[in-house]
Amino acid sequence: METSIPEERKVVYKFLGSSGIKVSNICLGSTTFGEGPIGLPGQTDEDTSHEILQRFSDWGGNFIDTADHYGFGNSETIIGKWLERQTRDKFVIATKCRFNMGTEHNVNNVGLSRRHITESIDRSLQRLHTDFVDLYQTHEWDDGTPVEEILRTLDDLVRVGKVRYVGVSNVSGWQMQSLVETSHRLGFNNIISLQQQYSLMSRASELESFQVCKARGVGVLPWSPLKGGLLTGKVKRGVKPTEGRIGWAAESRTRDMEICPHWSNFNNQTFDVIETVEEIAKQRGRTMPQVAIRWLLQKDIVSSVIIGARTLAQLDDNMGANGWSLTKEEMKQLDDVTSTPLTYPYNMVVNFNTDRANRYLKDAYVKSTSI
């Protein structure tokens, strides 16, 4: 591990959506901090997590993402113990709420009701040892709560100073449109970010959710940029993976998680993508994770890419996505190998608008390949 990091290899800072706050273009995610209820292998203990946080700071990273649900509060607690020894204003702290945090049955301890959100933020602030969070995000859509109730509650949290900015996560296109339009109509603080799964292996959100983001100045925060380890070089055509979380997912008989795709879901395109990333990595003297993350960093809609790291070596490797660029030809090569045929109605929307792009129209539809 390098003891010092050259300035030209450190992070760069970008505006978080249309807000005035700047964040490092790589964000440290913390799903690996502490043990949790999901049962994923390879979680990091508190001491190692603190070392990773400090090393991330050495790289210039100022953006840290967590959630109350990660480790049933353990992730926030670990970050909070580290944060209280730092200069708070140097860091942009993001967390989320939505899921059940109770150990006993309580029908109101879940969702995005006013009651659950207000209770969740108070507990998150206690665990994080801070008076406010910079970005508070809904972790997922909630069919049980009116959009107006959700957004008014979040707006109230901004007004009382517990939250600085509001974001959302894991939503469909119509849900994203509903959220931003309702917020605008009622005069609430703008939604500034969408945290969404996005990678060379997961591009479906380009079709609708990201179009809303482009039209409304919402920054995208991709999670799982390596698709649960699928883009790390551990997976080869015709060989069942055995290492890391991707190996765990291959052996799993009870869970087919989106974050760790199951072996049975791999197809020829999966391996075409892996081999293309590997080829570019070898040509450029880079690692596969660096190429995969770099592809995301060069997407205009992306404000910051959320990475996870279980070791200092993994962190340093991922941070190596900075300080260089993929060529236009390499970007196109990656775009092409990861594209899938458009189904109805997207094929008609795109095909009949190829010569109708009007850059003066704020809400104009843009082809997914231009994201």
UniProtKB/TrEMBL annotation:
Keywords: Oxidoreductase. One of its GO terms (molecular function) is oxidoreductase activity. Residues 25-337 form the NADP-dependent oxidoreductase domain. The keyword Cell division does not apply. CDD domains: AKR_AKR9C1. The keyword Oxidoreductase applies. One of its GO terms (cellular component) is cytosol. Belongs to the aldo/keto reductase family. Aldo/keto reductase 2 subfamily. PANTHER family: NAD(P)-LINKED OXIDOREDUCTASE SUPERFAMILY PROTEIN, NADH-SPECIFIC METHYLGLYOXAL REDUCTASE-RELATED. This is NADP-dependent oxidoreductase domain-containing protein. It comes from Candidula unifasciata.
